[in-house]
Amino acid sequence: MIKSIIGRKVGMTSIFTEDGQHTPVTVIQAGPCFVVQRKTVQKDGYSAVQLGYLPIRERKANKPMRGHFKKAGLPPMKFLCEFRIPDEINVEVGEEITVSSFKPGDIVKVTGTSKGRGFAGVMKRWGMSGQRDSHGSRYHRQPASLGPQGPQRVFKGHRMPGRYGGKTVTIRGLKVVGVDSENHLLLLKGSVPGWKGSIVKIQADKP
Amino acid sequence: MDMRLIQQVEQLYMRKDSLPDFRPGDIVRVVTKYTEDDKEKEQVFEGVVIRRRGSGTSETFTVRRIGAHNVAVERTFFLHSPAIVRLEVVRRQKVRRARLYYLRELKGKAARLREDRARAEADKQRGRQLESRAIADEASEDSAQE
Question: Which of A22, A185, A196 sits opposite B9 (nearest CB)?
């Protein structure tokens, strides 16, 4: 059984663990996913599985996609994701993957798209302190000096305002604290990138 | 996404037995358990409820008591914490706000609250009812045996 799955972030709440600890958790509705394609070193140069999530109606998929799913003998699905796995792991195309391949105590990493914050200033984007709001200051949330007089230019990569968020982010080392195979729910300790309802990839992480 | 799913998850971790109804102003005894040297022990904390907040699994209440050397101690409990073994209402008291932070400024006799007779009486009534029902149950059991 491979420990990789696609899911949707439901939201956050808190639970009590067995030893009575109050723990923050993210609820993720994940799977059931299906193996759509197995990529191998001989054929594709690297080893991975392609998983599909959320079946859709035939006419909602375009022709190339219909062909792709037909080859796997599956209905078309809304989301496709690839997960790298070792070549020697034996996975059949069409195999179903559910949350029950995870168990409490597992360490996972979660990949998602972080919340887009648009064009953000330097205080929000880089956590700079800004300047004083009073005592005659007229320079409140701006970045102050951009560098030395030395080379008479701004160094590359200098932290400035700009687009913030909306990027692919991976959070590692999250612990699975609960699995509900009936409702396809995973409870992970801690937070996960993205809005509620956004798609996340979950896979086993090295401890 | 569906909030019902979150509520469903929370339901599993909320307390199954219900604690007696209590409000800010009431004096309560909270009995909690903790482990020390692999032994389970109980601890009692008695004082005035000065706040109740939150909902679902994160609902909490805060109890204020005057400890040793006249030092006030406030302790916040999670209402659904499995560590709370038992909660008893010692005295119903009348207050006119939901958060009793003003008690922090008051000392000694000024920090007392008036008893809520109406609710105390209602408690007594309920207790009597439960008792009589228990007696009735017993009686019906006896008659069934006969």
Answer: A185
